Amino acid sequence: MPIQVLPPAGAPRVLAAAQLSNSLGDGAYYVTSALYFTRVVGLSPTQIGLALTVAWAIGSVTGVPLGALADRRGPRGTAVLLALATAASVASFLFIRSFVPFLIAACLYAVAQCGLAAARQALLAGLVTAAARTGLLARLQSTLNAGLAVGAALGGLALHHGTRGAYLAVFGLDAVSFLFCALVLLRLPEVPRSVARGKGEPRLSVLRDRPYAVITALNAVLLLRMPLLSLAIPLWVVDRTDAPSWLVSALFVLNTLVVMAFQVRVARDVRGPRSATRAVRHSGLVMLASCAVFAFSATGLPVWATVAVLVAGAVLQVIAEMQQSAGSWQISFDLAPAHQVGQYQGFFGTGVPAARTLGPLLLTSLLVVWGIPGWLLLGGILLGASLAMGPAVRWAQGAQAYIHRPTTSTPRDGLSVHGRRRGDR
Length: 425
Fold this sequence. Notes:
By secondary structure, the chain is mostly helical.
């Protein structure tokens, strides 16, 4: 049976259009921002790193209350406002000339981005049936990668020119992309607000949900694959192997293309908690193999063999990435109360800034300093986190059996998205 990469018409396709819009701008921004702030504005790499660490730390904390706001006030309106806030924060980069304004703008950007991610997940949950969420998220991930690839190419043109005007054009493009994202989101139907909190129910109950907190922490460990691809592997290729430096770019392109082509196919078999935890467990095993292969690339092989080993390690890494993504999406939705999807997704999403903040220091210490033993230790850590996900999910399911979960109305297609599906293929 062929896999449909393009989302179905209606809300899924509108969500994909919004994803494509802001990912185009982000792709250009990601490849140019650091060089702009160092070469044009004059900030030091240390200042940039400090500002981004503080910004994403604040963003991870505010994601939960902003997700709760989406539950209470409606996810569509909240997502639109946060997309506009993101556009404004990016536009402010056009006028920054010193560190303190950069720090403030970076914090606003991170807060808006984390809140937007939570609100969009709540919006998706309200518009799409539970059985279709993981498949749609896989298509959105493919759309995201396509947009980032095209945006990165546009950013490359700005880097080629290297002028202030070229850099500013990239920031303008990113701001406009979020404005367009907000307009696209307005085309979606309203999603009913969540029911009122039950008597004695805390406003941010996710903060008291210990099983979900453990699952979020385990997922954050597994998300170390993000700085692994963007930072650790490039440093490893350049510093520890004889492979040509252009291979760094080739491995990144390979990762993007594989996700675009196969993420939907990998997610097809994830349909509930059981298959989701199985996918995460398999991702840990594949990731251990990938780490071992990357370690082998520094054993003094001929250049052609080193290149082949690095490509093999990258292929295993992207397979693990797709399995882990599909499994974590399913788990994060299945274990979130239907009337609190926004705050639960905001909390689950803290794994991304946590991995981006702590990952670079951890991975450079393990891999660049320790070398081959560091790769094997990293593989063991990722395998352990993936194996622990199954017991953590069962713990969460057992805890839910004793908690009353209120329900709300059904979505427009008449299929309930607020009840939990029992069983799994």
